[in-house]
Batch of 4 targets.
Target 1
Amino acid sequence: MKRTPLRYSAALLVLVLAFEANASEYRPIELDPNYSHDRWVTQPQDIIREFRAYTTSFDSKDNDIALGIPEWVAYEIKPHPQPLGASPARPSEWMTDSEQGLAPTDDSYKHSKYDRGHMCQKYIAWRLGANADWNTHTTNPLCNFIWTEGNHST
């Protein structure tokens, strides 16, 4: 089989597209007007981030205790008309919110004995579509905690 520049170009294009598909970046955030994730206007309302599947608030730097952990995460759950089936693949790395200033990254959890706990579960977000599911893999709706032996069975 003869290797031509066209063949090399095609192989390179496939590699670039594969990398782009695995890149951990937010997918389009299209809010659904039929959902009111924070209809009761949860307090405090410091740094608000709205996603299709949830709304979250972070402590601002007003009192110097901003830890990059959400103060609260709110989401509305509605019945789904049919079984959902398997959800889409997860991103290869957790996304962070650079606008927040202090945001944990994938590396900040290594060897810390902390786990990332979803405060808006992937499967709940999957009800609102693949992009909503994907966008739960950010450090925004996470609360870190130390797993104990009993936590693994729940």
Note: Residues 10-23, 150-154 have pLDDT under 50 and may be disordered.
Target 2
Amino acid sequence: MSIKQTLHPRQRVQFQAVGEFLYVANCPSEILIETHRGNYRLSRGAQILDEKLGGLVTVENLGESGEVEIIVGMGRYVPPADGQEVIVGQMPPVALAPNQTVEVNKLPMIQLADGQQVVIASMPAVSFADGQQFNVATLPQVEFAPGQKVGMAGDVMVRTKQTFTVRQRTSSSYATGKHALPYTIPAKKRGRITVKAPKANTGAIYLGDFELDAGESIELFVEGAVAVTGAATDHVQFLEY
């Protein structure tokens, strides 16, 4: 057992001791220990060894206000040396109860043997300092839940050993039209469509918020319907194939 509390000058505290040693782990300067076997003036690091130490123990702080810590136990107490390290070569499996967590503030460099793997189920948010980089050589297959998105702030260079062949889609027919506004060009399975504002128009025509002045045109790669608005006296022309 042990006690650990702050004592003022000449303040006394009592506790029941069961053991064979009493070790002063911390005190401001000196403390007075009173037991049924005698009285002792001890400083930090001092130890009483007595097989019949048990009973009421009184502690009095003889110095300035400060923390007093006393450890009592069986056998002999060997305090750890300052800066002493413990090297763990092997540990048995550790099981955590439900909802238990382990917080790791710092880790040394870890080397994995050939064939060893580390599986990370989840990670907290990671912040990088200015200029820091994080390189990922390979990634496992990634699955996104419905509605999840990945945003990219800039262009990313992609290298691949695969060869892709892109064939241009051609059409054996085409269709044209000229209609008064407003007009919706019907949806159609097409390769592309050119929408033009005739030169004779007196005002602009609009594809949503996109504006075409008289004589201007735009080429779209879309199979859906194209809604065009403008003055009722103006027209829209289109060529699709």
Note: The chain has a mean pLDDT of 85.
Target 3
Amino acid sequence: MVVPVPPPPLLASHVAVRAAASAISHGRRVLLNGDHPPQVAALGRGDWVKLICGASFEDAADVRNLSLVYTLAGVDCIDCAADASVVGAVNEGIEVAASIVPTVQRPWLMISVNDDCRDLHFRKAEFDPDDCPLDCSKPCEKVCPADAISLKHSMVDGERTLSDPLRGKYEGGVITERCYGCGRCLPVCPYDRIRAVSYVRDPTMTAELLKRDDVDAIEIHTTGKGTDMFNTLWDNLSGSINNVKLVSLPDIGESTVDLMNTIYTIMEPHFKGYNLWQLDGRPMSGDIGRGATRETVSFAAHVASMSERPPVGWWHQLIHC
């Protein structure tokens, strides 16, 4: 006779997270009148689920496969890089899922953009493999969670150099489309040869993506360092904003709600759909993220309790960042 093994007891921290999340979900549920898409109904119930492919992850094959599997699993939204090939890969995955299960719900397709190059989700690691000593143990390759670094010995005069690792050179480096900017490689390089290259998504290309029928939403990352750059980006996109909008906002302390209200004022003239605040308790750091969920739930509970926040009707999402 097989005796089932009971699940491990919840830690006190886990109990606290569940209690806080439940209080927010049940205490802030929104009653909806009329017909709404199933994704909006999920938001109202507090059980909305989003697959995050990554704002900088651009491996089309992996994105396509993830989108296929998670569409079949029933997610409400798939978030991906604001890149035409990546958007095409997401839609291909969704279409294959629909061919397998014709009744499957089509998730929203959301593209992620930024208004400021200081947002850590929008960066890539970079280094010249010619600068890497051949006796290096390549810790960057080992620590990369996305398998985005590949270094191999080259050939010298037609002969492999494996027998003499101090001859020849390394080839390869960062596989750019797989790097999503976590930053784990930066501190482990013993020779300090790796750098992070930040960028801002081209608003013109983003505007073109938003005009497509198969793009449903946009997530705008803003760092909370002011609203000038957000205002500029919003002006550039305003002619294409006809879908769901989402603002990603980190915890910036006591000024968080003031910033939310300022952003709300900027966006209000162009409201045409459902709108969602994404509350990140901790900015992306590249580590395992221990405790990040607790911080996120705590941040959401704090904002939800404040009467000065933007008007009711803006949705609040909890995300482990």
Note: Residues 7-13, 27-31, 314-321 have pLDDT under 50 and may be disordered.
Target 4
Amino acid sequence: MSSRACTENEDKGESLRKISALSPTKFWIVILCLSLVISLYFAIFGSPISFRNFFNSLTDERKKELSNELRLKLVSTSESQLSLLNTPKKRKYLMGINYSPKGAYEPFCLFSKEDAIRDLSLISTVTLKIRTYGTQCNQMEHLLKAIDILRLDMKISMGIWLSNDEIRNKEQVDKAKEILLNSDTTIIQSIYIGNEALRRGDISEIAMISYIKDVKSYLDEKKIHIPVGISEFPSSVTQNLVDSCDIVGFTIQPFLAGIQSTESAKWSMNRFNALKTQFYNGKTHFAITEIGWPYQGGEFKRAKASPSDHKTFMHSWISNSAKSPTEDWFYYEAFNEPWKIRFNKEPDTWEAEWGLFDDQKRPRSDVQFVDGDQR
């Protein structure tokens, strides 16, 4: 045996003697610390019995069943909400809803297929149409797979996010083209480019029209028939921009206009009809891509963010819009987004309170949905 091996054996023997010399109290402290380290490891990185690994091991059919079970546990079991969950698939209460997946932000990209399954299981209780904002973090791929697994007759209005970063913009557009080439395009109902990028001043109108033409040209080349357009505040829209689009979506927020909840539905529809008349060209379709009401958090001019005002808006808007079933509209938004708290201006705290479901994915307890098919 080499001198190195002898030294190693002596070191091991010394270590064993030190451990055996520990008092019972110190011994159990060491064991406890080791257990804590092991527990933290599995909590962070998962284990064979962690939920995600367990979920991944299931068949697609069992994933669907488990998602439905989780959905029932996520919401209150009050009679009104159970009736909402048990609503037949052809009777949905919202025409569509804006959906920004939690965790679908670069560079972390924490959004997964399992997250998509759980979210769409819940969203599908109120609508079968969603509008997304970007293509990053494989969110579209996860959503399309979730729709397939859950066997939903769901449609997506795909968003392509544009900013003042031309490299990122190209990545967004290239990713969208890849998705369109490799996916079931019958699920993708429309494409909205650059959500409010003009209002933010991130790009020019000329650049926006260039992106629109690029995507439309690609679709024509691949013989894919999907309308392409923009989603903007009305103040950022021009006739030249409208004429370059197949579809134009307007952000119409009565709360941000300071309209009282009792007048909000009528004001919103009048505003939309006026915009359609103003920009009519005989070929471009119009939609409301964002309309909603914060659940709580203060007020803005005459508009109040409270459960009762939220309920008033929801009831009146759904009843009002049901009179024009051919109009596309998307409720803003599916889930609360806590990160928007940074935009709050005290004493008002409504910036992160626009979700139909809160940040724990629970439905707003006071909302009474009007019976009506908005599909």
Note: The chain is about 45% helix and 10% strand.
